[in-house]
């Protein structure tokens, strides 16, 4: 066993605080990783505060992990000591169901083992995430970080990046397509970059006109202020795809009307009931599709990392001292980060 340190919540109402705990010794197919960087995702806040009702404590968040391999099990072939590697939202799955067989472990019919707050499939202990000094993960769920990428800025690709890349890829976004991105946070700004790199004409939908210049800096060709009914109306029937990263309830109807016939509205941020209600005519009359998408499989996570290296894409980050994690949560809730905090794990030792 390894002794590890990390930051965890002991209950839904207590701030994250340092904690010492054990990591298992590597099993034959495991890779042990010294964590260098870990991105901070909104899911971490939801889970630490039990806002989804599925938290288990102590809860150590973190699923955008980049680090160096320090030890490998006897059967490991994909990684070796010293490699720069990443771990995203999942650390295991059943590995034999239809979804797993199709490299879509995130849709494992038995449920994937998430990187934190999920029972390990073998020993039943709750998984502990990346706000820590080390992690031990089966090699299948460990990806290679391309040398060209800045390792700190690569960390958020493991959740924010794959979440936006996977649906654009799945629905075949290609050169000339008109893609609208709803919201410009951690997910949205990555969505703009990916859609642009795929050759699409990209429009950001935002509530504040003040974000226009910043959106263009991220690669957006156009900006629509979603609170301006005239601008929304002028975009009617225009888009092939909408990538909706808005994580709170919002009216989908005005957005659906901006899709052309056969257009696809893809939800990646919302996991609550749609409210106000969807007017079915907005789908039926134009054969439009309302879809959802969850992160991406492990093979596709490697693919997006390689895509980022090839197209020089990285996440805009603000480095964080882990001692300031609770303040960072408050700032994220206020929308005050461009666009992802990444914990420098060297600060854990200080
Ligand atoms: Zn995440
Ligand atoms: Zn499965």
Automatic annotation (TrEMBL):
Residues 11-343 form the Enoyl reductase (ER) domain. Its cofactor is Zn(2+). PROSITE patterns: ADH_ZINC (PS00059), D_2_HYDROXYACID_DH_1 (PS00065). Pfam families: ADH_N, ADH_zinc_N. CDD domains: CAD1. Keywords: Metal-binding, Oxidoreductase, Zinc. One of its GO terms (molecular function) is alcohol dehydrogenase (NADP+) activity. Gene3D superfamilies: Medium-chain alcohol dehydrogenases, catalytic domain, NAD(P)-binding Rossmann-like Domain. SMART domains: PKS_ER. Belongs to the zinc-containing alcohol dehydrogenase family. This is Uncharacterized zinc-type alcohol dehydrogenase-like protein.
């Amino acid at each position: 066993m390894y002794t590890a340190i990390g930051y965890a919540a002991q209950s839904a109402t207590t701030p994250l605080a340092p904690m010492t705990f054990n990591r298992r010794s590597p099993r034959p197919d495991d890779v042990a990783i010294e964590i260098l960087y870990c991105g901070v995702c909104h899911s971490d806040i939801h889970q630490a505060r039990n806002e989804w009702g599925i938290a288990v404590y102590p809860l150590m968040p973190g699923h955008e992990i980049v680090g160096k391999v320090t030890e490998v099990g006897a059967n490991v072939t994909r990684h070796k000591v010293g490699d720069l590697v990443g771990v995203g939202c999942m650390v295991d799955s059943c590995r034999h169901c239809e979804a797993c067989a199709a490299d879509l472990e995130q849709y494992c019919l038995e449920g994937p083992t998430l990187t934190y707050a999920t029972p390990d499939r073998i020993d039943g202990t709750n998984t502990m995430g990346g706000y820590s000094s080390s992690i031990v993960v089966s090699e299948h769920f460990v990806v290679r970080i391309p040398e060209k990428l800045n390792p700190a800025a690569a960390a958020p690709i493991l959740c924010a990046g794959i979440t936006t890349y996977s649906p654009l890829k799945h629905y075949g976004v290609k050169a000339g397509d008109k893609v609208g991105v709803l919201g410009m946070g951690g997910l949205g700004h990555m969505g703009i970059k990916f859609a642009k790199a795929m050759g699409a004409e990209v429009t950001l939908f935002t509530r504040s006109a003040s974000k226009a210049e910043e959106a263009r800096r991220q690669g957006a060709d156009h900006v629509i202020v979603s609170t301006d009914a005239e601008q929304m109306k002028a975009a009617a029937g225009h888009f092939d795809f909408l990538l909706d990263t808005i994580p709170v309830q919002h009216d989908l109807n005005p957005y659906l009307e901006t899709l052309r016939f056969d257009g696809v509205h893809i939800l990646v941020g919302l996991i609550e009931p749609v409210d106000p209600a969807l007017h079915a005519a907005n789908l039926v009359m134009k054969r439009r599709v309302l879809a959802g998408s969850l992160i991406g499989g492990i093979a596709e996570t490697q693919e997006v990392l390689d895509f980022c290296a090839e197209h020089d894409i990285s996440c805009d980050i603000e480095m964080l001292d882990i001692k300031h994690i609770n303040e960072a949560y408050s700032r994220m809730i206020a929308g005050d980060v461009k666009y992802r905090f990444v914990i420098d794990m060297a600060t854990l030792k200080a």
